[in-house]
Amino acid sequence: DAGVIQSPRHEVTEMGQEVTLRCKPISGHNSLFWYRQTMMRGLELLIYFNNNVPIDDSGMPEDRFSAKMPNASFSTLKIQPSEPRDSAVYFCASSGRGQVRYGYTFGSGTRLTVV
Amino acid sequence: AQTVTQSQPEMSVQEAETVTLSCTYDTSESDYYLFWYKQPPSRQMILVIRQEAYKQQNATENRFSVNFQKAAKSFSLKISDSQLGDAAMYFCAYRSEGSGTYKYIFGTGTRLKVLA
Known about the structure:
Shape of chain A: globular
Distance between the termini of chain B: 41 Å
Largest sheet of chain B: 6 strands, mixed
Oligomer: heterodimer
Structural class of chain B: mainly beta
Helix content of chain B: under 10%
Number of helices of chain B: 0
Helix content of chain A: under 10%
Radius of gyration of chain B: 14 Å
Strand content of chain A: over 45%
Number of strands of chain B: 12
Largest interface: A-B, 23 and 21 residues
Number of strands of chain A: 11
Order of helices and strands of chain A: EEEEEEEEEEE
């Protein structure tokens, strides 16, 4: 298995531009998580999908952030418009049915820099 | 609300020596899971070891072991025979047992340096 695949690995964009981060979870996993990592706030859960349905988006910082999971093998996190304070590493993670207790499998993350 | 505290921002260990990373947590729950994740410079978050709160026996994975003290709410990670590849950020994480609970609470991390 190729693991959780995220793209792009790095993204540099100008303030005000739209940014789309992509994630392909492990085949067969039905839980998907988007986390953001910053020096100031550490790892924060942004949104959680179960069976492609958003269950908890309370961690999404504001309306500029949106996430979708159109099918079991793909999810996107979009920021529109982007701001410098959105600069962070964004992780996608997935877990199998009933296996969240065993730990997530994380992707390699996307480092986003907004200038 | 649960919290996870890693009080050591940075630790150093000589290659082949043993090092212990500390983690404490606060919870009113009796059933939960604890994890240690490793984040090397590649940025990938890698699960190192996990512990179920209902198990008294400390988890062990090769050179990695934990000292789980439930009453003290302590969950330290011991790395034996440290290797250069162990250099990374280490994060302690907590997850509730209850159904529908899926959020992991992460500590702020400890950066481990391994000296040759």
